[in-house]
Amino acid sequence: MGRGKPILRQQEMQQVKSMRIAREYLGSASAELPAWIGWIPLGVSVVGATLTREAVEPWLFMWLMAFALWAGCKWLVLWREVDRGGYADFRKILAFLFLWPGMNARTFLRETGKAAPVKDWLAPLAKLFFGILLICLVAPHVSNDLLKGWTVMVALILVLHFGLFHLLAFAWQTRGINAEPLMRKPATATSLADFWGRRWNTAFHQLVYELIFKPAARLVGSRWALMTTFLLSGLTHELVISVPARGGYGLPTAYFVVQGAGVLFESSPLGKKLNLRRGFCGWLFTALVTAAPVVILFPPPFIRNVILPMFQTLNH
């Protein structure tokens, strides 16, 4: 017991030191500069990625643009969190920036997490390996180009979002950090609001809710703010889908406009009468609205010009 106290004291001193570093390098800067400064890295990174469009393959440009958006948004949410006051461990800040795909800075930096049971690791592990099998053993033998492209995309989503990112969340939780999984059983959603708001890619939801929906709601009300959020979500997806593919412009935006309209409809008097926000009817409505028009979210030009060349390059 006597030897444990110095160790604990040393850990506390290290944490205080790292918090002081965070305050010096981030806190003082955010307090002295206007809030819009936090948007500059996002704009610069997107412009920088755009300049590479003619110099690299379309599939590589897609990843560069996706990374530019992700990195710029990561810095933006961190800037806003530090600007609210209080400072996290500087090591946590570095981990949030470089070792975690999520966008909820507050929960990652300030809240403690509880380690997930061992059995909970099995599902993401299974999805990870199933995705790998699809890429390595199934996709090479699919003859139809569009079907092959969809097989590769499904495999990538399983490997990354449902596999690696989920396992990474559990790994951070074992370290006492509240890293929330990005995918939270979206197939069980019983409403579109539940699907987009709490289950599918929660990193993106948290981002657009804080940066788009809340400010827009104060100006035009929640209904128009909702449609604005889905519209801008569609335009963002154009940057990583239509622009690299050089085709299918407007289709990803149309997909998200349909999703926004669906959310409004399910909460309308008729939607409530039809039980579109709960139970089997809600689940079926959600599945149809999200899955049926997904072909316009990832149109054929994206499959042929981006996904298939990427697969062929990596496969060789």
> How many helices does DSSP assign?
16
Number of DSSP strand runs: 0
The portion of residues assigned to helices is over 70%
Radius of gyration: 22 Å
Residue-averaged pLDDT:
89
Structural class: mainly alpha
Could you characterize the architecture of this molecule?
With 316 residues, the chain is mainly alpha-helical. It has 3 domains: 4-110, no CATH class; 114-176; 181-316, no CATH class. Helices cover 73% and strands 0% of the residues. It is built from 16 helices and no strands. The protein has helices spanning 4-32, 40-50, 58-83, 90-98, 105-110, 122-138, 145-174, 192-199, 202-220, 222-240, 242-245, 251-266, 269-273, 279-291, 294-297, 300-315. Helix 7 (145-174) crosses helix 16 (300-315). The longest helix has 30 residues, at 145-174. The radius of gyration is 22 Å and the shape is globular.
Produce the secondary structure layout.
Layout: H1 4-32, H2 40-50, H3 58-83, H4 90-98, H5 105-110, H6 122-138, H7 145-174, H8 192-199, H9 202-220, H10 222-240, H11 242-245, H12 251-266, H13 269-273, H14 279-291, H15 294-297, H16 300-315
Helix pairs in contact: 1-3, 2-3, 3-16, 6-7, 7-16, 9-10, 10-12
Features:
single chain; 316 residues; mainly alpha; 73% helix; globular
In short:
With 316 residues, the protein is mainly alpha-helical. The chain has helices at 4-32, 40-50, 58-83, 90-98, 105-110, 122-138, 145-174, 192-199, 202-220, 222-240, 242-245, 251-266, 269-273, 279-291, 294-297, 300-315. Helix 3 (58-83) crosses helix 16 and helix 10 packs antiparallel against helix 12.
